[in-house]
Amino acid sequence: MDLEAKTPAAAQARRDLIDQGSHLFPNPVDPAAAQALLALIRADRAFDSSLFQTEADFRANPQYTGVNPRPGRNLLERFQPELAFLEQDPRIVAAVGDILGDGYQILDRKVVCGVPDSAVPAWVKAIIAGNPVNNLGAFMRPEYRDITYFYGIDFHQDLIDFKDRDADFLTLYCYLHPVGRADAPLFLLDGSHLLGATVFPHDLAHSGPDSWTYGDRQGQRIEVAQRVLTGGAGFAAIWHPCTLHGTQPDAADHERISLRYLLARRPGAPAGMDEINAALKGPLRLSSTRVDLAGDGSAAIKANTVNQA
User: Which of 1, 107, 118, 263 has its CA 20 to 30 A from that of 88?
Assistant: First the structure.
């Protein structure tokens, strides 16, 4: 039996997840609190070329794995009280609670930085050119790996990091400052979740200025619309772990700073996610989620679709 949504707004969020795989909150969470947190983050370091190792240091000991935030090395552990504006926002709590059930859990939370083009050293650009996932953690000085840094990432599902796990969680994303078209905004493909879990890199072909043909390599193909997520400080959205999304490199002269959460239902708890997943036409889990990496974690292929958007 389907669970009744507790509020009209929560019901709308659930419908949006069923129909398009994402929900954009119509009004931002507290913009002043978002900008206050942003000020603390920016006071901690300069988001420029000083973040990077020297080329000699990198080549002496290249490390492509274990370079993202983790417990004990996560900048947000220092700012937990300042996260209440997002974590305790009544609209966020109601929508997420409806989809994941009461007592949902925080799997992960971190700061994500789109690094501006001007800050990325030329030697790094030469290594990453054409990569589908330009996670810059490998090139950062170790003391700064408490944030995830990107220079564009191809369309992907957040299930990519969870092989052999059901799509039973949500991503919550929040911009801490205004994000325009040049600021590496997120690109979402509406309805892409309907094919369920598929292997990265995904089967995508441009079919129009803002549309794509998406296939599961099992015979199903659908048309999906591209949506560019621009917004002000406190802009927030949630999406299904099978929803395709990505970003282009940051073309602005400043960094793009956001919060990213992964939120999961408690095992066995009834939740609206059951209704959402019942609408999918593909699997909820994969034993292998990606084929783009070499054994050491470096990129094994050169392909990037989102940069065609």
Answer: 1
CA distance 95 to 34: 20
Q: What span, in angstroms and rounded, lies between the C-alpha atoms of 206 and 137? A: 30
pLDDT for position 4: 63
Classify the phi-psi angles of 66: left when phi > 0, otherwise alpha if psi is within -120 to 50, otherwise beta: left
- Among all chains, which residue has been given the structure tokens 């999906």? 224
Q: Tell me the percentage of the chain whose pLDDT exceeds 70.
A: 98
How many angstroms separate the Cα of 281 from the Cα of each of 14, 26, 114, 194?
A: 18, 28, 33, 6
What's CA 22's distance to the chain center, in Å?
A: 12
Q: Which fold has domain 8-308?
A: Jelly Rolls (2.60.120)
Q: What is the dihedral of CA 135, 138, 143, 144, to 10 degrees?
A: -20
The pLDDT tens digits for 281-292 are 999 999 999 998
Res 1 pLDDT > 60 = no
**What does the pLDDT average to over 190-203?**
97
- How far is residue 44's CA from residue 185's CA, in Å, rounded to a whole number? 23
Instruction: Specify the DSSP element, H or E, that contains 109.
Output: strand 105-114
* Helix or strand run (H / E) with residue 169: strand 169-175
Tell me the CA distances in angstroms from 91 to 4, 15, 77, one per residue in order: 17, 15, 24
Specify the pLDDT at position 129.
92
pTM: 0.95
> How does residue 50 score in pLDDT terms, banded at 50, 70 and 90?
very high
Strand 148-156 relative to strand 105-114: parallel, antiparallel, unpaired? Answer: parallel
- Among residues 101, 44, 102, 109, the alpha carbon closest in space to that of 83 is found at 109
Domain boundaries, the chain: 8-308
